[in-house]
C-alpha cells in the first residue's frame, strides 16, 4: 500500500456492511435525567443523539463525498484543510476525505482560543476550515481576518451565514473515489506540537508516516477483526488516532466515547463489548478511586472481553499499574511513548510481555531505532548515564512547516530525531527521567521532577502532583510540589514533608502548594502555566525579602 486511504478502500470492499465507528454521548442521557443503565432497558424510542454508528461502506462513501466536495470547490493537491471539531462520528470521514482529495489535514486543538486558532491557521497556510457548533463564536471572531481561507464548512444544525453546510454538501457530491494519485512521500497532514514549551509548531507528516503508524500499533497490540477499540482522547491529537490505526488496519470496530466519567468508560466497555482501551493516567486513577469508594461496582458490568489496557502521552506512575493489576489481574498492560514529531505513540513501548519492567517506557518499537545522546545531540552517552532520547524510523516527521531553524535543531542529517526528553537505559530498557526543559538545577544539582512526582504519587491521599522549579536567590532554583488531594481525604504540608523523608534531602520539595494540577486534553501537565502562576509569586516574595 502507498497510502493510508487504500486501507479504507479495502475495508469498504471486504467488510462493507460491518460497523466501523460508533459514537456514544452519555451527556445526552444526563440532559434527559436518564442513566445509561436505565437507557439500556428501554426497548423503544431510542435517543438518537446518544448513540449512532456507521459501516465501513458508509465511512468510505462519506470520505469520498467530502473529497469530491473539496475538489469541486477548487482545492488542489497540497492545499490545507483544518479540522476544528469535538470527537464525533463525522471526524474521521472528514479527515480521510481531505487525504483522498490529495490535501493536507490540519487538526486543531479544541481548547484553542480564537487568537490561537487564528495563529495556527495562519502558520499552516490553511485554505479551508471545518468546524462544529461549539466553535461558531470563536470562528466568527476571526474569519474576516483570515483572507487565505477560501471558505469554512459547518458540521451541525443551523448553519451560520458565513459557512457552507457539511450536511447539505453530503447530499449532492459523488460517492466515487476521486482519481488523485498519492505517493508515500506526499505530505499528508500538519499536526501541532502540544505547546507545553511555548507556541505550538506545525509538524509535517507524510503518507508513509501514517501508514507506518498503522503497522506499529497492530504489531504491538495484535489487533484482530473481532477486537473493539474504545477511543476516548481527542482525535485532533496523534495519540488517540494512531492507536485507533491498529484497529483500522484490520477492519476492527471502534467506539468514540464523549466523556471520561469512570461509570461511562466501564459502561461503554460493557455495552459495546470493547476489548482494547487506551487511557490517560488521570482516567485510570479515577476508575480505581471510584471502585475504592464503591461508586462503581465491577459486578454491574460485563468486562471479561476487555483484554488490554494501555497508557501513553505522559509518564506512568508504577504504583498506578500495580493498583490496576490488583483490580484487573487478567489485563495485558502496555505503555507507549512517542511524540507528534514521530507520528504519535509506539516509537518506544514497554511490551505486554514486560510487565515486570513497569516504570520503564520500554524498548524500540516496531521499525524504530533508539539511542541516548549527549548535549551535542550525536554522541551516545556511557551506559547508565542520563542523556537525551533520540529516535529514528519511518514515522519521523518531514519538518516543522516554514521553520527550518527549529527543524535543524531536532532533526539530524542521518535521520535521528531529538525528542527533548532526558532518559537512561538500564538492563536494555529505556527509562524517562524528564523533559530537558523541566530539569531543575538547584545548588548545582540536577533534579528530575518526574522522579519526585512518582515518589509523591505513592502517598494514599495524593490524587495528582506536579513538580516545578521556582527561582531562588541562593540556590538558583528550588523544587515546588503542586499537589491535588483525593476527594474526601486530608493532607497538610507537615504530612507531605514527613512522607518526603524517604527522599534524599536534595530531592525534597522546598515548597508545597495545594491546588489543582492543570493538564491538557492529552493528559500532559501544563508546567509552563504553573511556572507562570507560581514563578511570579516567588519572584515577588524574594524582592520583598530583599
Fill in the CATH topology of the domain at 439-545. Answer: GMP Synthetase, Chain A, domain 3
Number of strands: 26
**Annotation field: number of helices:** 17
By CATH, the superfamily of the domain at 439-545 comes out as ANL, C-terminal domain
- Major sheet, described briefly? 9 strands, mixed
Characterise this structure.
The chain is α/β, with parallel strands linked by helices and 546 residues long. It has a domain at 439-545: ANL, C-terminal domain (GMP Synthetase, Chain A, domain 3), CATH 3.30.300.30. It contains 17 helices and 26 strands. The strands form 6 sheets. A 9-stranded mixed sheet has the order 2-1-11-10-12-13-14-15-16, sandwiched between helices. It has a 5-stranded parallel sheet with strand order 4-3-5-6-7. A 4-stranded antiparallel sheet has the order 17-18-20-21. Mean pLDDT is 89; it is low at 539-546.
Amino acid at each position: 500500500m502507498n497510502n493510508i486511504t487504500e486501507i479504507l478502500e479495502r475495508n469498504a470492499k471486504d467488510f462493507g456492511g460491518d460497523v466501523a465507528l460508533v459514537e456514544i454521548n452519555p451527556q445526552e442521557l444526563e440532559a434527559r435525567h436518564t442513566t445509561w443503565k436505565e437507557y439500556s432497558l428501554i426497548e423503544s424510542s431510542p435517543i438518537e443523539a446518544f448513540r449512532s454508528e456507521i459501516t465501513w461502506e458508509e465511512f468510505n462513501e462519506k470520505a469520498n463525498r467530502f473529497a469530491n466536495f473539496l475538489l469541486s470547490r477548487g482545492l488542489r493537491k497540497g492545499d490545507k484543510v483544518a479540522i476544528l471539531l469535538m470527537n464525533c462520528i463525522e471526524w474521521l470521514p472528514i479527515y480521510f476525505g481531505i487525504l483522498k482529495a490529495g490535501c493536507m489535514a490540519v487538526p486543531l486543538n479544541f481548547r484553542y482560543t480564537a487568537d490561537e486558532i487564528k495563529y495556527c491557521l495562519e502558520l499552516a497556510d490553511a485554505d479551508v476550515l471545518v468546524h462544529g457548533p461549539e466553535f461558531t463564536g470563536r470562528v466568527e471572531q476571526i474569519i474576516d481576518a483570515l483572507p487565505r481561507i477560501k471558505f469554512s464548512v459547518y458540521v451541525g444544525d443551523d448553519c451560520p451565514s458565513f459557512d457552507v453546510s457539511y450536511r447539505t454538501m453530503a447530499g449532492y457530491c459523488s460517492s466515487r473515489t476521486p482519481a488523485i494519485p498519492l505517493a508515500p512521500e506526499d505530505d499528508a497532514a500538519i499536526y501541532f506540537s502540544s505547546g507545553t514549551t511555548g507556541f505550538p509548531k506545525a509538524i509535517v507528516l507524510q503518507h508513509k508516516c501514517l501508514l507506518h503508524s498503522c503497522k506499529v500499533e497492530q504489531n504491538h497490540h495484535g489487533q484482530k477483526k473481532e477486537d473493539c477499540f474504545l477511543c476516548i482522547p481527542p482525535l485532533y491529537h496523534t495519540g488517540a488516532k494512531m492507536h485507533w490505526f491498529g484497529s483500522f488496519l484490520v477492519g476492527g470496530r471502534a467506539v468514540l466515547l464523549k466523556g471520561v466519567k469512570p461509570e461511562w468508560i466501564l459502561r461503554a466497555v460493557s455495552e459495546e463489548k470493547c476489548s482494547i482501551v487506551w487511557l490517560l493516567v488521570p482516567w485510570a486513577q479515577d476508575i480505581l478511586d471510584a471502585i475504592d469508594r464503591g461508586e462503581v461496582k465491577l459486578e454491574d458490568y460485563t468486562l471479561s472481553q476487555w483484554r488490554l489496557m494501555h497508557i501513553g502521552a505522559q509518564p506512568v506512575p508504577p504504583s498506578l499499574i500495580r493498583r490496576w493489576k490488583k483490580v484487573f489481574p487478567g489485563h495485558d498492560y502496555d505503555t507507549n511513548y512517542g511524540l507528534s514529531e514521530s507520528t504519535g505513540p509506539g516509537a518506544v513501548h514497554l511490551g505486554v510481555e514486560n510487565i515486570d519492567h513497569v516504570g520503564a517506557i520500554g524498548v524500540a518499537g516496531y521499525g524504530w531505532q533508539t539511542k541516548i545522546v549527549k548535549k551535542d545531540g550525536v554522541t551516545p552517552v556511557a551506559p547508565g548515564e542520563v542523556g537525551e532520547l533520540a529516535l529514528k524510523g519511518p514515522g519521523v516527521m518531514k519538518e516543522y512547516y516554514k521553520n527550518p531553524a527549529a527543524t535543524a535543531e531536532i532533526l539530524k542529517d542521518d535521520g535521528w530525531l531529538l525528542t527533548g526528553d532526558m532518559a537512561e537505559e538500564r538492563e536494555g530498557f529505556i527509562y524517562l527521567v524528564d523533559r530537558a526543559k523541566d530539569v531543575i538545577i538547584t545548588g548545582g544539582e540536577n533534579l528530575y521532577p518526574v522522579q519526585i512526582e512518582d515518589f509523591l504519587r505513592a502517598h494514599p491521599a495524593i490524587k495528582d502532583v506536579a513538580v516545578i522549579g521556582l527561582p531562588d536567590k541562593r540556590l538558583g532554583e528550588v523544587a515546588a510540589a503542586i499537589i491535588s488531594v483525593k476527594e474526601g481525604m486530608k493532607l497538610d504540608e507537615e504530612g507531605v514533608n514527613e512522607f518526603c523523608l524517604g527522599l534524599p534531602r536534595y530531592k525534597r520539595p522546598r515548597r508545597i502548594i495545594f491546588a489543582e494540577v492543570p493538564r491538557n486534553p492529552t493528559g500532559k501537565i501544563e508546567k509552563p502555566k504553573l511556572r507562570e502562576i507560581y514563578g511570579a509569586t516567588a519572584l515577588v516574595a524574594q524582592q520583598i525579602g530583599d
